[in-house]
Design goal:
328 residues, Heat Shock Protein 90, 7 strands, 57% helix, 15% strand, elongated
């Protein structure tokens, strides 16, 4: 809306140029194009073009073009007529024709065509980008649901086995294990449907997951879990970290020798960092891979863009992972 004024050759702070017909023509043209852009973006594309009603879509574009060109034609005619009255040879002086200047319709069409085509192209481009992003989100939402359906029964089965073993031992840890499990299932079922969740709740879920896995570890496996940080009110994509932690338990357990597993989470008001270290159980182990990790990496790229770093390496038969996410 400001471009006609800022680019006008007679631009000045006293705004005298707004009375000039050329500026008024340009200003109204930009105003009409602005209205056309939103009408094209929110109505013509989704209701007609995307519904393959191409004939009606083309007819409406042609009708709009004719209406705008006719408006500009008669607007200029009406605008120049008062100016002619003030000219030495104008109709008010007894000279010249008693009507406005002859306007070249083809010239008006060529002046209008470039910005008109630009508005069409821009609205199609933005619409296609929006549709692609929504499709990616829908796909990842479906993959996240698939991730829940695959992880939760497997994890639930192992957890129930651990609780059963504790019950045989009459262990006092059994009640805590049942409480951990119920809180985790409640979180997964009811609180992970939003794009972002409170970081505190996500960390509680991760802590519960690790403690439940600790119950089933053999005595020769040492698990060190550190959760450090400060800040409150942060949000994070739900279940974005858990597949990487799950891989530690899936691929890093070797009950034939003494091993150590490290999981370290550190967070600040601006970012969260996950670092894991675990031995590689067999040569056939797929390092840092799996359905959950693949989905999480796709979600990280879609939700956080360039605001995360993911590093992994293998050294001396150990697997190291470092994931940093910028929360703000």
């Amino acid at each position: 809306m400001l471009l006609p004024a800022l680019l006008h050759p007679d631009f000045s702070l006293d705004l005298h140029f707004i009375t000039l017909p050329h500026f008024q023509k340009t200003f109204f043209l930009y105003s009409l194009l602005l209205l056309f852009f939103y009408a094209h973006y929110y109505f013509l594309i989704p209701k007609l073009a995307e519904q393959k009603k191409y004939l009606l879509y083309a007819l409406l574009l042609i009708a709009f073009s004719i209406a705008v060109i006719a408006f500009m034609h008669y607007f200029l005619k009406a605008s120049f007529a008062p100016m002619q009255d003030r000219l030495p040879n104008g109709p008010g002086r007894g000279h010249g024709p008693p009507h406005g200047p002859r306007l070249n319709v083809m010239k008006e069409i060529f002046q209008f065509l470039p910005p008109f085509l630009a508005a069409i192209f821009l609205s199609f481009f933005i619409r296609s980008r929006t549709n692609l992003r929504e499709a990616q989100k829908a796909k990842l939402t479906g993959e996240l649901d698939l991730l829940r359906s695959k992880i939760d029964p497997h994890f639930l089965f192992n957890s129930l086995n651990s609780i059963y073993a504790l019950s045989l031992q009459n262990s006092e840890k059994m009640s805590d294990a049942v409480l951990h499990l119920s809180e985790m299932m409640r979180y997964v079922l009811y609180e992970t449907k939003e794009e972002k969740v409170a970081l505190e709740k996500e960390l509680q879920y991760i802590s519960g997951y690790i403690e439940m896995n600790r119950l089933r570890l053999s005595p020769n496996i040492e698990l060190e879990f550190k959760l450090e940080g400060k800040g409150q009110g942060q949000e994070i994509a739900p279940m974005i970290l858990i597949p990487f932690i799950e891989n530690v338990f899936k691929h890093g357990l070797d009950t034939e020798k003494k091993i150590k597993i490290d999981i370290h989470i550190h967070y600040t008001p601006d970012q969260i960092e996950l670092r894991t270290e675990n031995p590689i159980a067999t040569k056939n182990t797929v390092k840092g891979s799996g359905l959950g990790v693949d989905i999480s990496l796709k979600r990280l790229k879609l939700i956080y863009g360039k605001h995360f770093t993911y590093k992994q390496r293998t050294e001396e038969n150990k697997y190291y992972l470092q994931l940093t996410i910028q929360l703000k």
